[in-house]
Amino acid sequence: MPKKKYYDKVNKRLVYIGSHADESFWDQHWDTNDFKKAIQRNFDPFVTGHTKKYIKKGGRILEGGCGIGQNVYLLNKHSYDIVGIDYAQKTVDKINTYVPELDVRLGDVRALPFESNGFDGYWSFGVIEHFYNGYDEIMLEMHRVLKQKGVLLMTVPTMSLLKKLKAKKGLYPQWVDGSSQIEQFYQFALDSTSIIEKFESNGFKLLTAKPISGFKGLKDEVACLRKPMQFLFSSQFLLFRVVKKIIDKLTRRFSGHTTLFVFRKI
Prior knowledge:
alpha/beta, 7-stranded mixed beta sheet, 3-stranded antiparallel beta sheet
């Protein structure tokens, strides 16, 4: 279902309505005919580069909300002691069947089945924005399971300068809290300042906050560019991939769809 965006003026965030992001949704979203290949084809330098920057090789890492486990597989190959957890049971069962060497478990990021102070790092790729009632429980569990001075790396859709400009000009319909559409809630685009303030008020220190995915942010927010940019976005031709990368780098501060936050537990 196509997603519609509303602006929540009170909380300075976008509300995406379309498909309710529960475990059944994710099981269907991640379903593929070649499940094992989908896990093993990840060579993302973004993930490995930032992990190596902040966490020593061999460090114990938890990925909360690991999906099909492609990042668990990648970091395991780079000699990290990584555990993945997700609440989509069919997906977790498939991972355990097709790639049993990975440590991926069924569980809820709001109530993690792990000891306190047990992990050097925690990766969260696009998770906290999918909870309509907020991410406080997730944040507190992140803090609990990390060791002292452990590092949280987290990507979250956020309010870019472009989104803020559109909101100021009234280009999004207004969100009414208590709307009947809550049952179709998919995700938020959250306010970066609010995220930083909340995490820093709950035992974390911000190390960096870096906008990323400028290309996607521009494609999603500028209607007249959507069709040609979608072609570039989907293309596997080397030239188009290079063009996409250049556009992404030039636009991320203006239209970044997502922000990478890195916090240290204090």
